[in-house]
Amino acid sequence: MEEPCPWRIVDDCGGAFTMGVIGGGVFQAIKGFRNAPVGIQHRLRSSINAVRIQAPQIGGSFAVWGCLFSTVDCGLVQIRGREDPWNSITSGAVTGAVLAARSGPLAMMGSAVMGGVLLALIEGVSILLTHYTAQQFRNVPPLLEDPSQLPPKEDTSATGFPSSQQHH
Questions:
Q1: Which of 33, 118, 120, 129 could join 47 via S-S bond, C-beta 3.0 to 4.6 A?
Q2: pLDDT tens, 106-126?
Q3: Would you say 82 and 104 are in contact if contact means Cβ atoms under 8 Å apart?
Q4: d(CA 65, CA 58)
Q5: Where along the chain is composition biased (Polar residues) (predicted)?
């Protein structure tokens, strides 16, 4: 079960920042290394500078996205009274639209569609994985027992009771 909404927003914001810093740091390290002048000293210095300057900015952008997404998601849970994939899909669309608001209505619409489609794909894959892994752990019906492995039946033909329980 997930955390309650105020804490989930903070948790998602921090997680998104961390992912942005790490992913952006790796990307910027490679980019800085490749774009530097020849020489290992220049390449390492350029790589470190690119990470130092760009990774926090990328992490901040990811944090804004994660915080806004989580806030909209929590709002939808409150309004609709249920947690389902439609909340995430709608949150992705609204987040895309809000973050593109300064670029005009056409950009908002495009970003909303991209955000909704991206989250729909993520939710779809998540549902498929859940369905697939649940099949691995479902209860298997018991196999029919092999009659040769069963103990011999007792004689109940005369009285209807097993012979060991007959009382004289």
A1: 33
A2: 999 999 999 999 999 999 999
A3: no
A4: 11
A5: 157-168
Q: What are the C-alpha distances in Å from 56 to residues 24, 25, 42, 68, 71?
A: 8, 8, 22, 18, 22
Tokens standing for residue 163 = 């012979």
- Report how far residue 57's alpha carbon sits from residue 51's, in angstroms, rounded to the nearest whole number: 10
CB burial of 105-144 (b: ≥16 within 10 Å; e: otherwise) equals eeebeebbeebbeebbeebeeeeeeeeeeeeeeeeeeeee
- Amino acid, res. 82: R
CB 80 within 8 A of CB 87: yes
Give the C-alpha separation, 164 to 85, whole Å. Answer: 63
Q: Give the number of C-alpha atoms closer than 13 A to the C-alpha of residue 52, restricted to the C-beta side.
A: 6
